[in-house]
Amino acid sequence: MALPASQITHINLAGGFRGGERQTQLLLAELAARGWRQCLVARRGEPLASACGDLTGVEVREVYGNPLSAARALGDSALVHVHQGRSLQAAYLNRLVRGIPYLITRRVQKGPRRSLLNRAMYRGASAVVTVSDAIAASLRAFDPDLVPVRIHSAVSELTFDADEAVTIRERVGGDFIVGHVGALDDSHKGQRQIITLARRLCERRPTIRFVLVGSGRDEARLRSAAQGLNNVTFVGQVSNVGDYLAAFDAFIFPSRHEGLGSIVLDAMAFGLPVIAANVGGIPEMVEDQVNGMLCEADDIDAFAAATMALFDRPGLMEWMVEKNRETAQNYSAAAMAESYLKVYAQLSEN
Predict the structure, then answer these.
(1) Which residues, other chains included, contact 203 with Cβ-Cβ below 8 Å and sequence gap of 6+?
(2) Between the chain's N and C termini, which has fewer beta carbons within 10 Å?
């Protein structure tokens, strides 16, 4: 590897700890295991900074969220890797002042807002990586001159406690649990469809239970919409996501738009058949009738038919369980890191 001192600075100024932050952590950890010296510029007091604090060879620099303070923290490095939208301004400013190149990983399907600054920042990148073909298409619509490289996200390799998974199943009740993990934001993740689906099936398949793991701005509204339903459980934000995935029989992901949805990869690693909306990068992971069921967003009839098909056909379930465990092996953190190392090497040669 030709980068000086094998040093790279990652920047992610997101608040909270969602899929993009987990993927940032996974990449840093994998590179650290290979002996790389790295820096991470992260927002002060947010989970990403503490999650990476114990990684060998990683210096964490905590900053306030404004681009100017973040640009100052980038310092000298061979390369800056931008992992989140707001961080791009800091990397661009840093290149103007210090001449340090940067690459971008974009995880959001909706294209950047059309502006001269955004166009300059994307054209100023030495490379642009997307986590799905759907995101690449939106970037080409934003600027046809961009040539993104696709590198899929990785499974999180979540651990679980088998006894706790049994306890969760007992607490939820029923004999078939359809689970969802995600920020409770209906305009994005589409959880109101889950509530509507639960209401539709409460009499037709009364032993099916729906579990929503996560918190967010729509939590109160979704809980209100689910009043009177004994087949819906809200769990809130948890640290033991693996225990819940181990307790589920199937995973539902009715997003209205989605760059990729890395939690789907985690569900697949647990062998869960996936019932998902046919949007964004989801069809790049889920093949209809092979390792899951794809439905059009807001087509509750289709979601109901898919859920009942899995419940009523154990043979189909068993096939999808094995298929997903097999498919998830292609999405390891090691494979993701190898792909990024190839990009880093190409940039160092230019």
Answers:
(1) none
(2) C
